Amino acid sequence: MSTLEASLARFNGRRYHVYNDWIKLEHGGRLQKVSIDAGFTCPNRDGALGVGGCSFCNNEGFSPSYLRDERDITRQIDTGIAFMRRRYPKTQSFLAYFQSYSNTYDDLDKLKAIYAVALAHPAIEGIVIGTRPDCLPDATLDYLAELATRTMVELEIGIESCADDVLRECLRGHDFACTQDAIRRAAARGLFVTGHLLLGLPLETSATLISGARALAELPLDAMKFHQLQIVRNTRLANQYRAAPESLALLDPASYLDAVIDVLEYLPPSIKIQRLGSEVPPDVLVSPDWGMRLHKFPARLEARLQQRDTWQGRLFAG
Ligand code: SF4
Predict the structure, then answer these.
(1) pLDDT digit string (tens) for 109-121?
(2) Which atom of ligand 1 is nearest to the CA of 101?
(3) What architecture is domain 4-307?
(4) Residue 153 has pLDDT above 70, yes or no
């Protein structure tokens, strides 16, 4: 169990471990991720496991608008970097972020060729690969581990929930044991592993969330991303919401931040927090409309951690 003083010292004066603080120390500055849609699909869409996708998924909701009409990876990177330079003029370093769908779901030779295009871009210093835990065969992990000896590689694994009934309800197509196995096999090869957790899914409760947080604390994760469940157009959840809005108990900002804290308290201090939420374009969002921008989340979280007199790792038993 960590003390507040030790945590504040470790977390640069904050109550949780901010990825950007850590990367600035490690890398000497901020690293900006440039999203790429490389045209992958996923086994929950191409018929291998299902065709309708996870109940919450519409990749238009999760991808930047500048990717919608461009298929060429180099041009996507050029456009993304131009966008990032306008938004963050001081940023000089960029990672190619394979974000849309399952970016390890293809033949390994094809994967190598696709990653190589991004890594050949002169402004790109490494890659971030988002995927599902059941799309990580050993051969792919071996290749990524070898690649990581030459360039920066981060692997982002969609956990979404640690509770099997929640995963079943959202039609995810894999269980939590699959996630645990993928994270362990990736970490055993020395890969930097980020877990992606979606808070507010149907059937998730405080009890399942906390038992999930305890299970996450035992995994060799380097970083975590938190997202709030948002219902977006053209998803099964959107259909359910339209038919029976009362059947979905959506979180408000306060209860969402409390849920994030409930997880943070059990996570080891070593886990860096990369993200605290997401914003989907208004034309895609169905509900909830919090009317709150993402950049306000860190200050709100820090204030709530102080109010609750807690911090990341307070209940970590390691
Ligand atoms: S969330 Fe990921 S795994 Fe699920 S349907 Fe969408 S792309 Fe596939």
Answers:
(1) 999 999 999 999 9
(2) 7
(3) Alpha-Beta Horseshoe (3.80)
(4) yes
